[in-house]
Specification:
The structure is a homodimer. In chain A, about 50% of the residues lie in helices and about 15% in strands. Chain A is α/β, with parallel strands linked by helices. Chain A folds into two domains: about 140 residues, Response regulator (Rossmann fold, 3-Layer(aba) Sandwich); about 55 residues, Orthogonal Bundle (Arc Repressor Mutant, subunit A). The longest helix of chain A has 15 residues. Chain A is elongated. The first copy, chain A, binds a DNA duplex through α7 and α9.
DNA sequence: ATAGAAATACCTCTTTTGGGTGATTGACCT
DNA sequence: AGGTCAATCACCCAAAAGAGGTATTTCTAT
């Protein structure tokens, strides 16, 4: 079960990286890499018709992003496994990748030997990811457990109704300074720096 | 076509209601009701294997809700029709029911004769619902008609990411004045007068 | 052909906001 | 007994936003 040849496709816009990866993987026993695409569009057009087990997907593609491409392909071919590759890990793209169906999330500086191990892990139903990435995922989920205090949630809800500092303050009998402090804390907790994004994020996470 | 026997299953936690409904339906010519479940879990385990045409689904079930149960079963058996039953009608549950694939939405005080009529309506491709329910649906959908132009939607989405006038402007190659004008028009159309409320409303109405 | 959107651009003025930094109280945890 | 955190209040300052205009162009639908 663990030693069948795994068929891999690569989607990566950088020519050097793409070719290097292809050579490394295809040259390794138990791995085959006959297909590589420089963009999401060509991958979407072809991959569904190929006998592929695992796709290595760059996130930062020109045109359709790796996330969009993964969303599309995972829907077409649910049995396909996707490992996202990226230069740096940011919370949003990790989270989005997981949402659209990626199974693994690796940084591009992962060394070749490890990469092969991780591909096999995914093939066998695992979800390889670096410890930094894992940490961020934990953090993301923690955010889903409402990080806001009751008071903060109350204030945020009022902001979402279009109320200003002062209006909120008079409404709940606080000094406008206090309201401001609450808002600043809300921004910090949600990792945003203005009202618009705070409300968007809070709504998306069903916090309000 | 309209007089075949319709095979019905009931999912309802209240023993009295479940047994009464079963008796009424199974005792009526052209209707058969041999299966009744007290909760979503048991329904999910069995209904897919039964020869059933229409499911009467209580919304307020203990454990898995009627909506969750419907989502699961509709996915497994797309040909199955679901009529949601509820004591009172609230916008959210109506809307969610429709989203997960329910065909009808009736209040529990619907009288037995009407209920049978409605079951046959669903079986024949209709969507029975009380006039209050219909009104609410109309209202929900009416809001869905996006009043915003493409450009305005684009701008609003960018605002929801926390971008300022200027950032939006440089991003889509417009003068900040133009962006400001768009935003003013957005506020007017959504009947709000600031960013926070605009994003909240737009999100609630799935405009962004 | 032309009325009505939509998209574009500009101006002035006042209010609001967000960042930085700080303090105090009380609760809860260990 | 010390640490953390929510909640409260306070000040300064620069940037941003919102309200009020006006006005041209470019579609598009009738």
């Amino acid at each position: 079960m663990t030693n069948e040849t795994i068929h891999i496709a690569i989607v990566e816009d950088d020519n050097d990286i793409r070719q290097t990866l292809t050579l490394i993987i295809d040259g390794s026993k138990g791995f085959s890499c006959k297909y590589a695409f420089p963009d999401g569009e060509s991958a979407m057009a072809s991959i569904a018709n190929l006998l592929i087990d695992v796709v290595l997907m760059d996130i930062d593609l020109p045109g359709k992003s790796g996330i969009e491409t993964t969303r599309y392909l995972k829907q077409k071919c649910p049995q396909l496994d996707f490992i996202m590759l990226t230069v740096q890990s940011d919370d949003d793209s990790i989270f989005e990748s997981l949402c659209v169906g990626a199974s693994g999330y690796l940084l591009k500086d992962t060394n070749p030997a490890d990469l092969l191990v991780h591909i096999r892990e995914v093939y066998n139903g695992g979800s390889p990811m670096s410890s930094q990435v894992a940490r961020r995922i934990i953090n993301s989920f923690r955010i889903i457990e409402n990080p806001l205090s009751d008071r903060e949630t109350e204030v945020l809800k009022m902001l979402s109704k279009g109320m200003s500092y002062k209006e909120v303050a008079t409404d709940i009998f606080l000094s406008p300074h206090t309201v401001k402090t609450h808002i600043k804390n809300i921004y910090a907790k949600l990792h945003v720096n203005n009202r618009a994004e705070a409300i968007y994020k809070a709504f998306k996470q069903k916090l309000i």
